[in-house]
Amino acid sequence: MGLPNWRHERGGFALLVVLAVAAVLVPLLNLTVPPGSALHVPDYTVTLLGKYLCYALAAVALDLVWGYCGILSLGHGAFFALGGYAMGMYLMRQIGERGVYGNALLPDFMVFLNWQELPWYWQGFNHFPFALLMVVLVPGALAFAFGYLAFRSRVSGVYLSIITQALTFALMLAFFRNDMGFGGNNGLTDFKELLGFDLQAPATRAGLFVISALALAGGYLVSRAVVRSRAGHVLIAVRDAESRTRFLGYRVEHYKLAVFVLSAVLTGIAGALYVPQVGIINPGEFAPLNSIEMVVWVALGGRGTLYGAALGAGVVNYLKTVLTGALPEVWLFFLGGLFMLVTVALPRGLIGLRARRQSAA
Asked: Are 263 and 62 in contact (CB under 8 A)?
């Protein structure tokens, strides 16, 4: 969005270097340095940083459709939550007889609600490859169905944004229902292990952090490859002049659908990595506010840069951690003010601000 390509390349390279260094240093300082040392990274920090990486991956995915194709989705939280639920269902099946009610087949909440048998849509989630497939397939299928209908009908702009928000709100209400079989208000929690590894063990948490860093790096590289390709140039043309691009003979709806599905899949992967690190997934993840926060991440970092979106996710969530700990009642006002500040004073986000200062110098 107006920045020279070399700055995009340098910023993306810096992101990859930071991720590589963090993937080595954070687990090393957590597992090998004694807790009393000033260099020790606590387990809590490892989990917190891992969560930030998941948010950053979701931000990169949103920037792919918003920054490069002009699709302002206010419902990406739905894809994040669906990926999380797919992973959560696998983790619930791993609990087995170690649950409160000792039922080897049914999760505790189903036993509590007097379910007699496992629903058909829970079948297969005791296998990790199947769960991984669902992490990708479920958000991708929903994005395909939604995008096919919306883009084919040429729904765009604010109307598309409102519809995406309605989508995630409807899913939130559905998942709140106990008879849906997803734990209702409490969601899925009390996870024990992942592939036989104790989720509370520091080594497992460090491993999840490294996987999250790799996923973010992979998501960034895939997104960068897309936007640098010929199809990526068409996406930018769609963003800047959709009618003219259509007039030139391009099937605009196909390009928009493809990038929307890819973005949903990346967001679902972020949700799947998020769940074992925080230990819970509930319908609150579908809340429209979560999707709006994602937009703020991208806007603050710099729309149309990819690495700026990752930076914005890190900055906003760090501020959220600090403010909700000290002044929880202030956070939403701060978030709203931050969005207004970015809209009025920082249209290109932090990345654009830095570039403007360098140009002025």
From this structure: yes
